[in-house]
């Protein structure tokens, strides 16, 4: 009888340990998203990372992937502009949108460097804050143009930037 109770107690102890381990692992992955407004997006971006550098790296790489997928949208802007726009206006919009796109790429890569090298946290947050595509949308609006796919990309990048900032804020302060 005592042997049976010991086995039952041991099994219960093992089961409890497994549950606690699983909860801890899940908690570590979602702790990076504690202050994120869009927790679902955050969890998708950190991809189960256990450490802050892993979470930031995963999220920044996902941002770069999202931007790379949207490159065709950016490249297609000039062809979708109103034929009544002056050539210099079209060129201005094209340049603004390409520059804004390149800024997303450059700033994301700069942030990856800050995460890897442990450079100043304030620099990381400054670059994270500048990941966006609003300059292009504003440029289109200035000329009375509106492209839904460009507006959607801008909205997506704003959500990514806000989520990246939330992940950055999850870093333990030393």
What does this structure look like?
- There is one protein chain.
- The chain has 174 residues and is mainly α.
- The chain has helices at residues 2-31, 39-46, 52-69, 71-80, 87-117, 121-129, 134-142, 148-169.
- Helix 4 runs antiparallel to helix 5 (87-117).
- The longest helix is centred in the middle third of the chain and has 31 residues, at 87-117.
- The radius of gyration is 23 Å and the shape is elongated.
- It starts with a helix and ends in a 5-residue tail after the last helix.
Return the structural class.
mainly alpha
What is the β-strand count? 0
Helix content: over 70%
The average pLDDT is: 86
Give the CA-based shape: elongated
Roughly what fraction of the amino acids lie in strands?
under 5%
List the helices and strands and how they pair.
Layout: H1 2-31, H2 39-46, H3 52-69, H4 71-80, H5 87-117, H6 121-129, H7 134-142, H8 148-169
Essential attributes:
single chain, 174 residues, mainly alpha, 8 helices, elongated
Summarize the structure.
The protein has eight helices and no strands. The chain is mainly alpha-helical and 174 residues long.
């Amino acid at each position: 009888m005592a042997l049976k109770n010991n086995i039952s107690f041991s099994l219960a102890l093992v089961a409890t340990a497994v549950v606690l381990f699983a909860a801890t692992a899940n908690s570590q992955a979602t702790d990076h998203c504690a202050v994120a407004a869009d927790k679902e997006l955050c969890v998708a971006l950190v991809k189960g990372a256990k450490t802050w550098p892993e979470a930031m790296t995963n999220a920044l790489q996902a941002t770069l992937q999202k931007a790379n997928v949207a490159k065709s949208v950016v490249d297609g802007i000039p062809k979708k502009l109103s034929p009544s726009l002056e050539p210099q206006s079209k060129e201005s919009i094209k340049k603004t949108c390409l520059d804004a796109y390149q800024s997303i790429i450059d700033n994301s890569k700069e942030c990856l460097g800050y995460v890897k090298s442990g450079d100043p946290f304030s620099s990381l947050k400054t670059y994270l804050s500048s990941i966006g595509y609003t300059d292009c949308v504003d440029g289109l609006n200035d000329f009375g143009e509106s492209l839904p796919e460009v507006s959607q990309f801008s909205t997506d990048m704003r959500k990514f930037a806000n989520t990246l900032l939330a992940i950055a804020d999850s870093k333990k302060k030393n």
